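Something for you to look into today, if you have time. Just paste the record in under my message, thanks.
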Amino acid sequence: MSILMIVELLVVLLALYVGSRYGSLALGAISGIGLAILVLCFGMKPGTPPTDVIYIIIAAVTCAGMMQASGGMDWLIQIAERLLRKHPDRITFFAPLCTFFLTVLVGTGHVVYTLMPIICDIALKKGIRPERPCGVASIASQVGITCSPIAAAVVAFTTISASNGFDITIPQVLMVSIPACLCGLVAASACSYRRGLDLDKDPKFQARLQDPETYKYMYGSSATTLNKEIPASAKRAVYIFLAALVIIVIYASFQELLPSYSTLKAIKGAEAIELTGAQALPTSAHNLTLTADQLVKAGLTIEGVTEKVDTPLKMNLVIQIIMITAAALMIIFCKASPKKAVAGPVWQSGMVAVVAIYGIAWLADTYFSNYMDVMQEGLTGIVSQYPWAIAFAFFAVSVLINSQGAVVVAMLPLAYSLGIPGAVLLGVLPSVYGYFFIPNYPSDIATVNFDRSGTTVIGKYLLNHSFMMPGLVCVIVSTIVATIITQIIY
């Protein structure tokens, strides 16, 4: 590794660090500063921005945002709240399952903000330390991303894998990630079941109870959505959204149902090919020297150089078409207000994710693509003996960039270039979630604020926070179980 390579790596890491300090849109925007320095100051060739993933996120969050604007999300939260209030003594196990499946359905972990105060309220009224369900429920809301058929991380994994020779469908990914992550969540919930002191034995909590104002703040109100009337249009929006998910899964499982289109493909190498007017070129293009790829772009069929092939419609386009269509149906038939959708937290958080992935993944691809040969030479020996060790790299990058989709887009091409088999990478997919390690993610911060008891905390030393233990347990167990499943299947 040369000094220049180290300096440029420091530019990448500094951009990610500064962006994470500001959070939100800054993470992607400040990555742009790092990209500008690498390209304009160091003369590096720009990488490729992850447009396919970005388009899918835009389509998915638009659809989910419309469902929220129609009131459909309130109905889903009500269903979850009824389950939790029916079994309050099991809330440490049921709360993370609720937040997990909400994320699986909607494709983003930001749908749980309405449910988190309810989880805290139920636990507190039942005398259960709220830190126990709240900590693991916040973790579960992010773990569900690698288990959602419309999440950017899952779609990016299938798209990038297909381009690297590992053909896998979205349902095949979910067959591994869902059971693995559920095992991880059960393990994290079990470890959280008796975590910390019971409220009646916690001296800090009992001291706060002595203050009448604090007591009123904790017990004087009740967070609930059960008193909210859900209109029929909101339920229709949920049915439309679920139907869209089912259609996506069907097409992903049976891709032979998708239409095919005739396209040109280069069958000769990239060497120059001299063409004359006798080969049906335009009259003004006699005696040109082109490559086979240039012929394809020009739409010219030359025998022995290009050929027509049937190409099926790609799944990334299918997801976009179905999600946008479902959003339109919600506007027409479910009274979903576009203005309300744009102002909602689901759409706004999704657009933040777009900017983050845009800047981060482009910055990472620029650096990795320029030093791919060096990295292959330096890391091939390690990954050939311990291919699963790439999980540590996925986790470490996630700690910095706060986006599982961005981790997949930025790191998966590098992993394939190192010769790591696709089955191994599928097994370590749960390790792309590591941003609980430093508690600066919105869902974790919001959970701390929602817990009126003050038991869910960010510790004095930053890393001794309420999300560390359940996060580590869940990711480690999920990754191990996913690896075992892929070994059995593949």
